[in-house]
Design brief:
single chain; mainly beta; nine-stranded antiparallel sheet; 38 strands; 34% strand
Amino acid sequence: MLSMFGQHLGGLTSLFFIISISSSVSSQGGPHLQSDVRDGSSASSFFFYQRAEYPRDCLEVLSQCSSSSVDGVYVIKPDGYIEPFEVYCNNSLGDGGWTVIQRRHDASINFNRSWEEYENGFGFLSQEFWLGNEKISYITNQKKYQLRMDLTTASGLSFFVTYETFRISDRFSHYKLISTGEYTGEADAYFQWCPTNKIFNDCKCEGSCADPSCTVSCSDTPTCICPDGFLMDGNKCISREDCSCYIQEADGGQGIVLAEGDEYVNPSCTKRCSCNSDLLSCDDTYQCSPNGNCEERQGLLQCYCNAGYTGDGVQCDRATASDCQAFIGESSNSIQLIQPAGWTDEPFQVTCDVIDGGGWLVFQRRVDSSLSFYRYWNEYREGFGSVDGNFWLGNDKLAALTSQGEYELRIEFDSKSGQHYYAKYSSFSVGDVDTNFRLSVSGYDSSSTVGYDAMNNHNGREFTTRDRDNDAYGYNCASYGTSYQSAWWFNHCYHCDLNAPYSGVSYTIYWYNFPCSNYNIQSTEMKIRPRS
């Protein structure tokens, strides 16, 4: 009933309305647990003649029968109402004759009801109840009535207030409050009255349209707050649906309010909405890239790029990682596009190998004699061949890669008889062109199956090609007759040369003390990865 006045009271254990035709109401009797309507002979009727056997309100109940002077349930029939109905009469308050229209004292009845329930009434006359707007309308339109509200605080203090006149209209006017007349009472000195659309509570979670999220907090000092489903808009409470950035179809149809600067993507990732400057804008063309997926990550649902791609999920481009470490977790070898730190030219393709935990970048491969490795300085500097076949990645690229951090080296061997071997080193790097791509290799792993550390003899050596002699020998090891014809970090033309030609039993791909024979190598593959 208080919402009819746009006000709320705090700290009450019970709230009562009393309606009377008397313009002078006794203050005796203290607090009460009901609301009453009382008739008076001095008031005029607005409806047709009433049959005498039915009293029109509780005041007539009291006047027609002296045995009706006790509080209780009685039958009345207001002017024009089709059927008689029961009401609770309070006859112990003052001179009696009060028709109770509402009672609340223990929260045993839910008052969050529909329009139809408030129209017809609900609850139990001897407990908590609402008489019904239709019945109250007929009662209060018979003559002049007075309203009395009895209130009791949680601490047990009781007060009452009165309004000189009280009348509500019929259903066609939506039971509009016509008049409350002059107010008298002392409740204002003891109660805090809340503005329209606010309630009195000691716990709150009060957000706003600009920031709908909130955290529940409670205190010993209750205050006026927005009820559930309402948000602050300036100094007043409004329904969430009235916020300018409200999305009705979100959250399973319950609707959400976007905070300023926030975005919302629907579950199928076909619509994206944002709230900016208190305005909602939605994009119905939102769609994930073929290289992306609609999923939730860290509580945020939207389009995301798949592994190996970068972008906003709508546009996904192949990732340009700095080496193959970014692709650890792949289930098979793959060709990837990378760009080492400091590499200013275009990104380039490499083969990423998943052997031994993955993350290996292949920079040399020889599987047959179809590609000659007897090349010039600039060819070895830039690289040649195909990353999915016989190739040399390029010394400039190797220098850029190994300058990013500490790398380890792994060399794979297949013998001419079909056995597989490997050699592993914990440290590998190649200097830049100013050092003639000087080799640094160490940390031979004793678990290597190749059986001998042949690279140690070449540690610290510069790279030599047929047209650039940087070895320590008296002649160019890269072009010494037809025996070598390759390129390598030569020292004295021996120990290992994995770029040597396929040329018969001797003077071919070479690793000193290789199992069975130094020349027993059919194919090789050299690869690096960041050292863990």
